[in-house]
């Protein structure tokens, strides 16, 4: 059957090694050198790595210690998030010259719906080129882009010709593109799920597409429905300019394990201050406070409580975090503490769902100039 999917032109713009590239731009002595943002110290975790560092296998979320083993000449730089936010705002202003439908995913990537755009250009491919050229000339950084009929395909496409490139997946090519794709490249399918799919003989989009709705739901639960639709090019998620924040958090990994609650309280004071600052900057408050504890053996524990009123004040956040810390005995020394606020006082998100008869075959028939 044919779906009633709306026809959209979606661009996913992804900055190239954003944090590292900003550091190299601001400090020319770092250009061309293997660079890691964050990751300093025995317990540090890397936030971003330059392409020179990635050649050695260094990547984000990797421990600084491992990164040093992979690249002996690696340079560590402390993150400057205020600077990254400043650059991100410059880039966002460029986006808004083309469309008001901009959905930021983070400081370095965003979706743009240019179906109807401010410059009246029918080609999303040309718009993406113009945006990338302006980012380079006005900001000094390179960006990559993916262009297609929905957010899912556009995001996958943006990774194809990195760095400083773009890929368009035209409507008539979407199904073949997804069938040929290794399932490890499907956005949202992580290492564990990919391994499970491999064990079941699912290696490509074509293999995934061959499985029935019932099979996928049986073996992958609620995610099975999602996989059934996306491999058929069906995703009706709109670009939402005002994404609703569901939680706000801050955490710290310590250079040495903490076994004294006195030292932990000192760390919680700094974390509560950061959470309060972020809440106030975003002009939101929350009712549910969660304390995150990661022990030296890497086991993770969370403790939560919901208040009858909204909070964003540091003193109140810290008071409740302390209560959660003392709620139960700590089973080991602690390597990480975090505080998050959820149940925020923002409007509830609304979503549009695509209704598809999952017992019938599905095809996407879109004719559109991209």
Order of helices and strands: EHEEHHEHEEHEHEHHHHHEHEEHE
Count of alpha and pi helical runs: 13
Distance between the termini: 24 Å
Strand-residue proportion: 15-25%
Number of strands: 12
Q: Walk across the major sheet and give the strand order.
A: 5-6-1-7-8
The mean pLDDT is 88
Shape: globular
CATH superfamily of the domain at 247-344: DNA polymerase, Y-family, little finger domain
Which CATH class of the domain at 247-344 is shown? Answer: Alpha Beta
Category from helices, strands and their pairing: alpha+beta
How much helix is in the residues?
25-40%
Radius of gyration: 23 Å
In the CATH classification, which architecture of the domain at 247-344 applies? 2-Layer Sandwich
Poorly predicted runs:
347-367
CATH fold category name of the domain at 247-344: Dna Ligase, domain 1
Largest sheet: 5 strands, mixed
How would you characterize the overall build of this protein?
- GO terms for molecular function: DNA-directed DNA polymerase activity.
- Its main location: cytoplasm.
- Its cofactor is Mg(2+).
- It comes from Winogradskyella alexanderae.
- Among the domains are: 63 residues, MutS, DNA mismatch repair protein, domain I (3-Layer(aba) Sandwich); 47 residues, DNA polymerase, domain 1 (Orthogonal Bundle), CATH 1.10.150; 98 residues, 2-Layer Sandwich (Dna Ligase, domain 1).
- It contains 13 helices and twelve strands.
- By secondary structure, the protein is α+β, with helices and mostly antiparallel strands.
- The strands form three sheets. Strands 5-6-1-7-8 form a five-stranded mixed beta sheet. Strands 9-12-10-11 form a four-stranded antiparallel beta sheet, with helices on one face.
- About 6% of the residues have low confidence.
- Helix 6 links the parallel strand 7 and strand 8.
């Amino acid at each position: 059957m044919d779906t009633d999917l709306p026809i959209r032109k979606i661009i996913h713009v992804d900055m190239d090694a954003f944090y590292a590239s900003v550091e190299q731009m601001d400090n020319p002595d770092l250009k061309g050198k293997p660079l890691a943002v964050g990751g300093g110290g025995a317990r540090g975790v890397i936030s971003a790595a330059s392409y020179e560092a990635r050649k050695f296998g260094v990547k984000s979320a990797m421990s600084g210690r491992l990164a040093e083993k992979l690249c002996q000449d690696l340079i560590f730089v402390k993150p400057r998030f205020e600077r990254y936010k400043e650059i991100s705002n410059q880039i966002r202003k460029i986006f808004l010259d083309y469309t008001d439908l901009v959905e930021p995913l983070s400081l370095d990537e965003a979706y743009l719906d240019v179906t109807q755009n401010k410059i009246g250009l029918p080609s999303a491919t040309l718009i993406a080129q113009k945006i990338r050229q302006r980012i380079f000339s006005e900001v000094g950084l390179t960006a990559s882009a993916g262009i297609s009929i929905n957010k899912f395909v556009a995001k996958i496409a943006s990774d194809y010709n990195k760095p400083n490139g773009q890929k368009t997946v035209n409507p008539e090519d979407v199904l073949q593109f997804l069938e040929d794709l290794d399932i490890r490249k499907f956005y949202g399918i992580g290492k564990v799920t990919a391994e499970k799919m491999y064990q079941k003989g699912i290696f490509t989009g074509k293999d995934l597409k061959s499985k029935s709705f019932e099979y996928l739901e049986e073996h992958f639960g609620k995610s099975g429905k999602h996989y059934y639709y996306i491999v058929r090019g069906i995703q009706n998620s709109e670009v939402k300019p005002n994404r609703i924040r569901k939680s706000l958090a801050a955490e710290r990994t310590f250079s040495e394990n903490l076994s004294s609650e006195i030292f932990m309280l000192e760390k919680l004071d700094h974390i509560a201050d950061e959470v309060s600052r972020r809440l106030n900057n975003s002009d939101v408050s929350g009712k549910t406070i969660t304390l995150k504890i990661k022990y030296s053996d890497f086991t993770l524990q969370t403790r939560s409580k919901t208040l009858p009123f909204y909070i964003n004040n540091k003193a109140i956040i810290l008071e409740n975090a302390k209560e959660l810390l003392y709620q139960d005995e700590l089973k080991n020394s602690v390597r990480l503490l975090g505080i998050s606020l959820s149940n925020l006082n923002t409007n509830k998100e609304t979503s549009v769902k695509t209704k598809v008869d999952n017992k019938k075959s599905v095809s996407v028939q879109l004719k559109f100039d991209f």
